[in-house]
Specification:
By secondary structure, this protein is an alpha/beta fold. The chain is built from eight helices and twelve strands. The protein has a five-stranded parallel sheet, sandwiched between helices.
Length: about 230
């Protein structure tokens, strides 16, 4: 049994109830909130391991809740729910710092799978063959400590940004397609689309702007890490 605490945020009681049934069956503990303001209060009170956060909420919408949490550098994992199957909602959520998204209506078994995958990635335990520190140019990555430095200066990267950067650093000079990056950095059980990679690449480029290491785009192909 897992025991992680999940905060379920949705203004539809039937969705909360359905999610609780399936998630608690897997051993997760759950608390819930019906609006954005209550969600922020619940985060402070309960310190959940993950939030299942609906986009369309009263008081404050889910995107604003996500923005406020990330502004405070709260590391809690966030799985966004959206009733609209439009890229703008999904990508905006990811740009604000969400870890994954799921479109309503959803299969509750898929919700469980997504929660497991996000929590597994957030723990950041590398396989034995990937626990050796790597140096490329002026970037040093320690996978066991989950630390990244540029010229010895630490930089803050979120869980998925770290995994993506580590993947690129382990393949310097090699063009990796978006699908390859999804498989290597997100894992085979990730259900998202390749646009997710582009969003996280954008985040990394901003954080690497003072580094001699750059991420080059190969239009229609993918990305490559280079040292200039």
């Amino acid at each position: 049994m897992t025991g992680e605490l999940l905060l379920l945020v949705d203004d539809e009681p039937n969705i909360i109830e359905l999610a609780q049934i399936y998630l608690e069956r897997e051993g997760y503990r759950t608390v819930s909130a019906a609006d954005g303001k209550s969600a922020l209060e619940a985060v402070e009170q309960h310190r959940p391991d993950l939030i299942v956060l609906d986009v369309m909420l009263p008081e404050l919408d889910g995107l604003e809740v996500c923005r406020r949490l990330r502004k405070k550098e709260d590391p809690v994992s966030i799985l966004m729910l959206t009733a609209r199957d439009e890229d703008i909602d999904k990508i905006l959520g990811l740009e604000l710092g969400a870890d994954d998204y799921l479109t309503k209506p959803f299969n509750p078994r898929e919700l469980v799978a997504r929660v497991k995958a996000v929590l597994r990635r957030s723990k950041g335990d590398p396989p034995p063959e990937e626990d050796t520190p790597v140096q490329v140019g002026d970037i040093h990555i320690d996978p066991l400590r989950r630390e990244v430095t540029i010229n010895g200066k630490p930089i803050k990267v979120r869980t998925q940004e770290f995994d993506l950067l580590f993947t690129l650093v382990r393949h310097p000079g090699i063009v990796l397609s978006r699908n390859q990056l999804l498989d290597l950095a997100w894992g085979y059980d990730y259900y998202g689309n390749t646009r997710t990679v582009d969003v996280h690449i954008g985040h990394l480029r901003k954080k690497l702007q003072d580094s001699q290491v750059k991420i080059e785009t190969f239009t229609g192909v993918g990305y490559k890490l280079v040292v200039r």
